[in-house]
Amino acid sequence: MAAAGLGPARLFLGRRRGAMRALLGLARGLASGPQTHFGFQNVSEEERREKIYQVFENVAEKYDVMNDSMTLGIHRVWKDILVHKMNPSPGTLLVDVAGGTGDIAFRFINYVHSIRERQLQQKLKRHQNLSWQEISKSYEEEKVKPLGDSQVVVCDINKEMLKVGKQRAQHLGYSEGLSWVLGNAEELPFDDDKFDVYTIAFGIRNVTRIDLALQEAYRVLKPGGRFLCLEFSHVSNPLLSRLYDLYSFQVIPVLGEIIAGDWKSYQYLVESIRRFPPQEELKEMIEDAGFFKVDYQNLSSGIVAIHSGFKL
Amino acid sequence: MLRGGRGAVAALRRAAGSRGAGGQGRGQALEPSLLRFLVCPLSKRPLRYDESTNELINEELGIAYPVIDGIPNMIPEAARTTRKKPPAGGSKETSGPAGPQQ
């Protein structure tokens, strides 16, 4: 209930920066909790959440273009690998957290759709003596349930990112089995034991309390459900690490300025990757949340890693 | 002829009114399939979807989460400041047939 007091206080502060901020800064510092990091800066948890919200508010429109330029398109391959690893079958319920602009959700839909098509084709092949009526009925089935009851819920904390995602979905023609929710990974608005798969791609790095997000992931998954996390990780090879650092700190913020007109947001991005726990440490955190059979797979020599765990 | 004109104006006002109300977030309704997943992020208890105000209401805590552009806003901070109000907003009146047209 103390949090209820913080709500209006936070709004008030947001509107009167400057002088009031200096005065209330001390009280706020005491109230807003322990210190944490924003890139290489040290900030309070509340400040970190606000700053990260602003980063994504600023970059939302150019998010996809920037991903392509920074990773030279390789991020598409990483995301493809994630969905292939998931290997969803028709009827799977997926929650994609921090899914913003929809990359994972769209891939999931494509994958399930093609599996379903193949299923129907195989069914037809097996029954060679079908009448025309039976064949047309099975095509109708496919039209009515192109995804076979599969569903993906995209949850993100940032309104702008969701807006961009919804627009993309409209442009690309995705509507069936796809829904959007504005929510906080640390406090998911979903009931227990609901989803078959939980994914978080390039999002967990921006969560302030990773332990809470992992606990929520565990809660909303069905028993037998799978947790999948795709995130930037640590490169162990020293030569590659040097090149990667050079590229990250010299090239990426410049690209950010040229393409998105926002050096600082991309500086944050690069710093946040360095601050994020390495593979083994993240694995332990996932195990702490209760997941079993936790494992990780390095991609591109550890530039990114896919962590996987199961709720038993 | 006057009556015809009045009718046309009334129809225009109604159309403008409903679009105005949509701009305030009453626009797109919530997708029904989401209702089986959504709960209050604070208490994890079920919510009631109110179609008229396009909100998800937690009766126990007396808070309502708005649905904006078809996307439910399930952030607790956004909801706390939205106490359950009787639907007497100005925008609602214009969407009715009354209107200040004497």
From TrEMBL, chain A:
What terms describe the molecular function in GO for this protein? 2-methoxy-6-polyprenyl-1,4-benzoquinol methyltransferase activity
Q: What is the species listed in this Swiss-Prot or TrEMBL entry?
A: Anser cygnoides
Record's function text: Methyltransferase required for the conversion of 2-polyprenyl-6-methoxy-1,4-benzoquinol (DDMQH2) to 2-polyprenyl-3-methyl-6-methoxy-1,4-benzoquinol (DMQH2). Methyltransferase required for the conversion of 2-decaprenyl-6-methoxy-1,4-benzoquinol (DDMQH2) to 2-decaprenyl-3-methyl-6-methoxy-1,4-benzoquinol (DMQH2).
Gene3D superfamilies in the record, alphabetically? Answer: Vaccinia Virus protein VP39
Protein's UniProt name? 2-methoxy-6-polyprenyl-1,4-benzoquinol methylase, mitochondrial
**Chain positions recorded as S-adenosyl-L-methionine binding sites:** 101, 156, 184-185
What reaction does this enzyme carry out catalytically? a 2-methoxy-6-(all-trans-polyprenyl)benzene-1,4-diol + S-adenosyl-L-methionine = a 5-methoxy-2-methyl-3-(all-trans-polyprenyl)benzene-1,4-diol + S-adenosyl-L-homocysteine + H(+)
Q: Kindly name one Pfam family recorded for this protein.
A: Ubie_methyltran
Q: In which pathway does it act?
A: Cofactor biosynthesis; ubiquinone biosynthesis
